[in-house]
Amino acid sequence: MPSLTPLKLFKNLSDDTRLNLVLLLRQAGELCVCELSGALDESQPKISRHLAMLRESGLLLDRREGKWIFYRLSPHMPAWAAAIIEQAWLSQQQGFAELAQQAASGGRALCR
């Protein structure tokens, strides 16, 4: 796993899409690309590109299930990085609860 530095973390989280992906995954636990794309109302290629950047930095893990790829926050990220993400999520918890519910209710239908 790449060594995550504060600079790398903040560069990753400075982009709205990547920040929203991380906070949405913090809320929901695990979501597929289709669910993330639907919740954030962005194209799958754009979401996939940002997810790849987050995965390469060590913030996310992925797993394949059939034709879907599911993403979740990495339990291996440094505690200081997890604490920063937790605080950001706490400051916007209500909005992401609604987004996670929206993602779970209709996102996978977009993949079909």
In order across it, which strands form the biggest sheet?
A: 1-3-2
In oligomeric terms, what are we looking at? single chain
In whole angstroms, the N-to-C terminal distance is: 33 Å
Helix content: 55-70%
> What characteristic shape results from the CA principal axes?
globular
- Mean pLDDT metric: 90
Explain what this protein looks like in three dimensions.
The protein has six helices and three strands, in the order H-H-E-H-H-E-E-H-H. It has helices at residues 6-13, 16-28, 33-40, 44-56, 79-91, 93-106, and strands spanning 30-32, 60-65, 68-73. It has a three-stranded antiparallel β-sheet. The protein starts with 5 loop residues before the first helix and ends in a 6-residue tail after the last helix. The mean pLDDT is 90.
Brief rundown of the structure:
The protein has six helices and three strands, in the order ααβααββαα. The protein is of the alpha+beta class.
Secondary-structure map with pairings?
Blueprint: H1 6-13, H2 16-28, E1 30-32, H3 33-40, H4 44-56, E2 60-65, E3 68-73, H5 79-91, H6 93-106
Antiparallel strand pairs: 1-3, 2-3
Provide tags for this entry:
alpha+beta, globular, 112 residues, 3 strands, 6 helices, single chain, three-stranded antiparallel β-sheet
